What we know:
- The first copy, chain A, is of the alpha/beta class and 195 residues long.
- In chain A, strands 1, 2, 3, 4, 5, 6, 7 and 8 form an 8-stranded mixed β-sheet that branches.
- Chain A is globular, with a radius of gyration of 17 Å.
- Chains in contact: A-B, A-C, A-D, B-C, B-D, C-D.
Amino acid sequence: MPTVLTVYASDYGHTRDAAMALTEGADRVRGVDARHATADSLTHDDVAVADALVLGSPVHMGSMHWEMKRFVDLVLGRFWSGAVMRGRIGGVFVTGGGVGGAGGGCELTMLSLHGAMAELGMHLIPLARDTPGFEHGGLHWGPYVRCATSTGAAHPVPNECRDLLAGHGAAIAQAAVDRSIARRFPALHLSDRSA
Amino acid sequence: MPTVLTVYASDYGHTRDAAMALTEGADRVRGVDARHATADSLTHDDVAVADALVLGSPVHMGSMHWEMKRFVDLVLGRFWSGAVMRGRIGGVFVTGGGVGGAGGGCELTMLSLHGAMAELGMHLIPLARDTPGFEHGGLHWGPYVRCATSTGAAHPVPNECRDLLAGHGAAIAQAAVDRSIARRFPALHLSDRSA
Amino acid sequence: MPTVLTVYASDYGHTRDAAMALTEGADRVRGVDARHATADSLTHDDVAVADALVLGSPVHMGSMHWEMKRFVDLVLGRFWSGAVMRGRIGGVFVTGGGVGGAGGGCELTMLSLHGAMAELGMHLIPLARDTPGFEHGGLHWGPYVRCATSTGAAHPVPNECRDLLAGHGAAIAQAAVDRSIARRFPALHLSDRSA
Amino acid sequence: MPTVLTVYASDYGHTRDAAMALTEGADRVRGVDARHATADSLTHDDVAVADALVLGSPVHMGSMHWEMKRFVDLVLGRFWSGAVMRGRIGGVFVTGGGVGGAGGGCELTMLSLHGAMAELGMHLIPLARDTPGFEHGGLHWGPYVRCATSTGAAHPVPNECRDLLAGHGAAIAQAAVDRSIARRFPALHLSDRSA
Lengths: 195, 195, 195, 195
């Protein structure tokens, strides 16, 4: 039973709400165990059991929340020298407030989150354009959940964004299921014509 | 008299309109000659006289329009081995349509445009948050001008975006003026205490 | 039989050589048909049959070769409005010359290439750290093949880089095989507990 | 007297050494006061007096050290809602170890550091290609100081990199001097032909 683990940091609860919406979407895929947890609550062992990992962060000053970065450095970093996470599934989402109508740095934030998982050899699942809700915060790297108007007035996670997050969670979960199917056929794996 | 040259590629005229709005803002700064031209119309010599360069592009598939890239490779690239452009002023803007509410790749597009000028040693002017219109397409790297709703229905450059573009143009022009002032005092330049 | 198609642009033949080395690695995976072609030779239909797509480019002025960008805009862009490429496999490599010992913009170039495939919903395969040859141009996003010394003197694709490219090609091909295995079990796909 | 402040986080002392080399280069420019300090030692008031700011970080998992990110979020972030830092000068450098010959994520790390200063409206100074030592870690965004071989064996900051850092420091300091010159001529500033 593939496990999808969503890790997040949250200041005001918006990113937690977004993590929950994504987890619900992942959980609806048959055969998947979907969980979420804060970045400061997880150890190396908690992550080691995840078949898929989703990293979610508010955008702060154009990049990830420093508590997410601490998690990346101190927990994910411990996997760097090994191959445990190689080929597992990775995805991202971010949230944002503040002023401005152009994403506020969401893209570079998503790329840094993806990059941390690429460092571990994980396969990266982008956000498909036909995911319901894409017009509400859809970017090809992942969902961007605005929790404020463009002038900076805060509001909860919009329902359309919940759909988008759930759809992304389902796609990530499905990729984890697919991987578990393929791994049942080891004869087809890493085979070499020259062998 | 510092020259500000805005270079753009445009499919439907939106990016040309945005280039014009930015140029008008630059032109309002005293002592500045502001121009704009399409990427396919310029030679190395046209660029060599620009004290400030602004690169504007539609976002296509998450990066700059291929005609802008051709200009970067074939025209700007010719400056790479020399120091002619070193210390001159650079800025960017991008336009976008399509589906999605998270910038559609505008950030990576702006970074590639900035990067081409960084390769020449040019000083990069970001978009200040207090520029009027920032809430309509403001990103710290430059203006992102949506010319479509989030579901993809096309519309002209919004007036608020014109203000934002003009303000960015004025800031870039002012940086070019400042540089020309500083260069009138060569005794203060590249001086070395050890000399 | 999954098809792995490597698309590249090449100025002096180095990127073509690198594309060939990657293709050879992909071709060694059992059940894979691996091909390579220049960006200016391919149509929409040629790409539509690829189960995995690898994009390779020289780094020019900190981003992809303008001929690759033209291919991305005019050929890959035609897939944007549909879902044909969704879930297929994508990977990248880049080559570089010039002066400088820090990649010369290879990372942003790889990210723009990855981004074009993310726009199509393709799953992105990074370069695993334990791939043989990683110390010769290994970056987590893909191989960076230096074809010049750090002072800019040109040389052929180093053999260690060929190993790295071949290993990356094999990993991409294996991901395409895995996907084809998983797709033989439609009952496990897109299933929904609530259904 | 313009102040150039270099802020860094360091695990083993390499990044501190690099910060010192850059500071020495800045200090050689006449009329400049150059300092350096660790990210965890600085308050909002310490930063507020800096005419130029240099951010330096090790590359960890493809992005900046979490202690630098904490500084960006908690100290620099306090400037976000105001205009105090607008138009001041910014520059970056990064250090790296680990395995791999393609920068290990140095570019995205530099871009996130630049981005934090772009959020404050600061003008960004890239690394000019003709800076002595450019072939030893030169990237257009800033110096990348390898403190390990490509297979990961640690070594001190190379002397060629010290030259590169010093040259970058001098260029940043000179930009701060130029700005202070230009600001002595307020009649030429923010003037408007329509006025």
